[in-house]
Amino acid sequence: MPLVHIELIEGRSPEQLKQMVQDVTEAISKNTGAPKEHVHVVLSEMQKNHYAVGGILKSDEK
Description:
The protein is of the alpha+beta class. It is built from 1 helix and 4 strands; from the N terminus they run βαβββ. The radius of gyration is 15 Å and the shape is elongated.
């Protein structure tokens, strides 16, 4: 049972997330031989004020 955990910053539409999950599932199934129904995908969305790069919160970027 492949388990994929994806962390990303909030802001994508439900349709975008749905397509991403489908694409990831397809890639994992294709490359591991695991049936799609055994591929688990966990999405963790972070608020922009909970993620920083180079000491700058994403919420503070212009």
